[in-house]
Task: inverse folding
């Protein structure tokens, strides 16, 4: 398959991007991925992967993250932009805002977060967990689109599928977290382990637990309807502006990462 310029992992609300496109089925050592969609966006080939399935039937703690990332790697993808619905922990961040995180904290419990369970023992550097190049483009294009953009933020990933408790959110706030979601990990690390560029654009669907009376899925859906069209435009513009040469941080991630 011809290499594509970009893959988009679509979170909640992005399932419709696959409409009218025939899916690819890719076998991986970690399972079958049957919902990859290749389309032309602004004359650029883009692979779209709906993280939760076409009918949003896969909960965040059951997503086969290793199969998804490996399938993209197998078909030649080198860059990934993920979208994530998140809750705001920082009091200044509002529903409808967009955050391009610069770091994350893994607070999941049962997910497999590596491809390297056997020799050679491999330790990838995640001092910068997200691709600096893609982050810069996402921030720039999002600001030009009229979105209220936060150009940094710490994203804490929880196991789900339940929402967090007020006490948990208070703990995360004291730990320096700005937003909370259920799908940030292990995608970013798995991508780095395969030397793929990866960054995330998060849209804030609600205030976190304890900051509003209750959390509902209907609220998330309503904010999504208002925000996602603008994010789709950001993704298209980002795809247009990606340079040919990738950032060295991602492209050489395995250099000096293994015990020989």
Result:
């Amino acid at each position: 398959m011809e290499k594509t310029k970009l893959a988009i992992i679509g979170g909640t609300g992005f399932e419709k991007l696959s409409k009218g496109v025939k899916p690819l089925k890719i076998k991986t050592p970690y399972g079958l991925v049957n919902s990859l969609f290749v389309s032309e966006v602004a004359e650029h080939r883009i692979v779209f992967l709906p993280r939760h399935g076409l009918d949003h039937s896969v909960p965040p703690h059951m997503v086969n993250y290793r199969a998804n990332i490996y399938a993209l790697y197998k078909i030649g993808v080198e860059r990934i932009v993920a979208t994530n619905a998140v809750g705001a922990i920082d009091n200044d961040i509002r529903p409808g805002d967009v955050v391009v995180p610069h770091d994350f904290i893994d607070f999941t419990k049962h997910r497999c977060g590596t491809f390297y369970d056997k020799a050679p023992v491999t330790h990838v550097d995640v001092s910068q967990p997200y691709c600096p190049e893609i982050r810069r483009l996402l921030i720039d294009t999002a600001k030009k689109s009229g979105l209220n953009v936060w150009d940094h933020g710490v994203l804490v990933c929880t196991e789900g599928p339940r929402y967090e408790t007020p006490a948990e959110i208070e703990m995360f706030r004291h730990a320096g977290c700005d937003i909370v979601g259920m799908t940030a990990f292990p995608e970013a690390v798995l991508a780095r382990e395969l030397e793929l560029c990866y960054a995330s654009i998060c849209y804030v669907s609600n205030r976190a637990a304890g900051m509003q009376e209750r959390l509902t899925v209907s609220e998330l859906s309503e904010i999504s309807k208002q925000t996602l069209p603008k994010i789709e435009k950001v993704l298209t513009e980002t795809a247009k502006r990606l340079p040919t040469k990738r950032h060295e941080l991602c492209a050489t991630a395995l250099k000096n990462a293994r015990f020989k």
Summary: The chain has one domain: 6-251.
